[in-house]
Amino acid sequence: MNMLKSCFFYCAVLTKRNTRAHPMSSMANFSKQSMKESMSMDIDAEQNAIGGGSINEKPRFYQPNDNPIDSGGGRCNIDNTWNPSDNLSHMLHALAGIDRYPNYLSRFRQLSDIDLLEKALETRLSEVRRQRSEIVQRRAGIRQLVRRHISSEREVDVEKENCDCAELWCDHPLLSTPKTWIELRERKVLLDQAFKVAYTSTASRRNTRKAKSRKQTLSLPTVEDIINGKAQVYLDPSLLEDWMNQEMYDVYSFPLLSNEFCSLLRKTLRELSALAESDEFSHLQFGRRPIDLDTIGLGWVTDLVFHMFIQPMSLHLFAKTEKLAEEDIVDLESSSSTLDWRQGYVAGYSEDPKGYIGAQRHRLVPHTDDSEVTLNCCLGDEFEGGSVEFYGLRGTPEEGQFIGSVDRPNVGTAVIHSGRNLHAVSNVLSGDRYALIVWSRSWSHVRSSTCPCCWLNRRQDSTCICSKRWN
Ligand SMILES: O=C(O)CCC(=O)C(=O)O
Ligand SMILES: [Fe+2]
């Protein structure tokens, strides 16, 4: 596979959008909205607690790039004196200095300035420790919640039997990991077309010219190997063309998960959230925050989506824009994605999130994700409103401009976009809406050569000391 083919795929989806009736035409709404409106939405949302559209990010406001002073993501010390606690840039400079110069701190005249650095780092360290211990407790609590749920489902007392969780859910219809292609199909996890694209691409890859010329017989990787990241998936671009649609610039959609699977997932999350309201579990606030799939034993779903679809698809769609491969990449077939980290969670929305268990918000303010590539799959249920709106790529002139929205996709349909594409979810007007979100990062590649500050602020062609140019 070469760049030409990948460009061909790209052009084909573009052309398809222009020439064919859009299969999800009800989804595509390209009305324009001024940047001012989107900013005021942001400001409104800040007044709301969770349930109102806020996200797990510090309040920050979009500022057009012509502002000569870059506030570094909203933290700027006005008087500019050395203050590593309030000025993130000062702390990062000190860390870079300590990393570079053997006796960096000897240049500080006042010991009290070093004390300030120590205090700032201690504050961060205690935050790391606080979060760590909260995570340990929360994960243990959620595990207990899941065990309780399974024991009531199966009418066994798992606590008494002292069952190991892994054993307990090895044959569970949702929690157990599918191991073979047959099992994956029989359990109706994927929609037929998604299964076919993945299976056909994987099976036909065994017979590639390269393998033949090396006289190798490649065995078909098992689903278990793919989920565990032991086998790499390559998706055939000619199959992607029929399967995917370009919704707008750099945002693509495709049918992914089956109705049966989405409904089983929703049902389980609702039951867990309802159980979590009991006195024993209410401190966990489970179902009142997005639900991380790893914590409830559903990490395999995230792994499947990540390894089977996000990684190989991103090579076709985002290799260049998100710098997921070397600049001079010419052979996509022999390349592997540099995406190497994933997190999957379910976000729930309803018209009245405070009264509704398991759906945390009624909308979501414009934001970028801390991911290189994000997949967002509609899990249903019945709802009105709750469109995903896109506002341009951060770090480009389109940043903040309304580009288009994806309105009420079919259940099981996924959207894939770059994490730095500003996006929001509009008010859910009725019903409840669940979305499976998978964030993917590239620690081995882009995050090894860019500092967090440049990356989170999406500086393009950075001349920052963090870039390869300097290291
Ligand atoms: O719920 C959605 O459709 C989007 C959620 C989202 O953007 C996020 O969790 O980062
Ligand atoms: Fe997001």
Structural commentary:
- The chain has about 475 residues and is an alpha+beta fold.
- The protein has helices spanning about 5-20, 35-45, 90-100, 110-155, 160, 165-170, 180-185, 190-205, 210-215, 225, 235-245, 260-275, 300-315, 450-455; strands at about 30, 245-250, 250-255, 290, 340-350, 365, 375-380, 385, 390-395, 405, 415-420, 420-425, 430-440.
- It has two domains: about 5-55 and about 175-470, q2cbj1_9rhob like domain (Jelly Rolls, Sandwich); about 110-170, no CATH class.
- Helices cover about 35% and strands about 15% of the residues.
- The strands form two sheets. Strands 2, 3, 4, 5, 7, 8, 11 and 13 form an eight-stranded antiparallel beta sheet that branches. A five-stranded antiparallel beta sheet has the order 1-10-9-12-6, covered by helices on one side.
- Strand 2 and strand 3 (about 250-255) form a beta hairpin.
- The longest helix is centred in the first third of the chain and has 44 residues, at about 110-155.
- It starts with a helix and ends in a 15-residue tail after the last helix.
- 2-oxoglutaric acid binds next to strand 12 and strand 13.
Low-confidence stretches: 1-51, 62-78
Query: How would you spell out the order of helices and strands?
Result: HEHHHHHHHHHHEEHEHEEEEEEEEEH
CATH superfamily of the largest domain: q2cbj1_9rhob like domain
Shape: globular
Please, how many helices? 14
Q: Please give the largest β-sheet.
A: 8 strands, antiparallel
The radius of gyration is: 24 Å
Q: Which molecules are bound in this entry?
A: 2-oxoglutaric acid, fe (ii) ion
How large is the share of residues in beta strands? 15-25%
Structural class: alpha+beta
CATH topology of the largest domain, by name, is Jelly Rolls
Helix content: 25-40%
Head-to-tail CA distance between termini: 32 Å
CATH class membership of the largest domain: Mainly Beta
